[in-house]
Amino acid sequence: MGKPFYAGGTYGLFGYIFCDLLQHDYVAPHDRSVPKEAQKNIKHSAIYPPLSEALVHRWSALTKRQTKELNPAVVFAILALWEHQKTRGELPAGPADVAALQSTANGLVSSADVNKQVLTTIPAELIQSLADTARHECSPICAIVGGMLAQDILKTLAARDPPIANFFTFDGSTGAGTVCRMSMP
After folding, report:
1. What is the largest CA-CA distance in the chain?
2. Do the Cβ atoms of 180 and 167 come closer than 8 Å?
């Protein structure tokens, strides 16, 4: 299409932001350890893949520590929810959908080559929480994810800092947000 793209949403206690900015140029912030005379605005460029490429990202190149820091359980829970919605035409409705959602999530984890020392299956309590709350809007979660999305759009327009690299997930039960570089060079 040739247009920069942002998408964001929340599912109960969970949320995400995805961006495909095509090729995005920005000026890196100054390095404060360098003397003022040597400081220069350095232009950087980042290439963003479309969603279809990001969804087939392989995690095998990451170390155990890198994988842990990215909290892949939340990423794959959201991807499983998307798959569930695509095949069934609706969001999970609670306990009746937990088994199908769990199976889909675990299949996605194994097909993405996630480090098995970090994650072999998505925790059942995470899937249960997602299935129970996916159809609800939780105002604090909407505010956090919406605020992050708005902040990142402004960063992109100003081109003064690097935007998110390309997939952000938020887990409201822990209050943790994670940025994952999915299929980005």
Report:
1. 64
2. yes
pLDDT tens, position by position, 161-170: 889 999 999 9
Give the 3-state secondary structure of residue 77: helix
Alpha-carbon span 6 to 17, nearest angstrom: 7
The domain ranges of the chain are 5-28+42-180
Query: In the CATH hierarchy, which fold is given to the domain comprising 5-28+42-180?
Result: Rossmann fold (3.40.50)
Region for 113 from its dihedrals, namely left if φ exceeds 0, alpha if ψ lies in -120 to 50, beta otherwise: left
What radius of gyration, in Å, describes the C-alpha atoms of the chain? 18
The predicted-structure confidence for 7-18, as pLDDT tens digits, reads as follows: 999 999 999 999
User: What would the two tokens of residue 106 be?
Assistant: 């675990």
Say how far apart CA 185 and CA 180 lie, in whole Å.
Answer: 12
In this structure, are residues 141 and 15 in contact, taking their beta carbons and an 8 Å threshold? yes
Residue type, 78: I
* pLDDT score of 1: 64
Residue 114's Cβ-side half-sphere holds a number of Cα atoms within 13 Å equal to 24
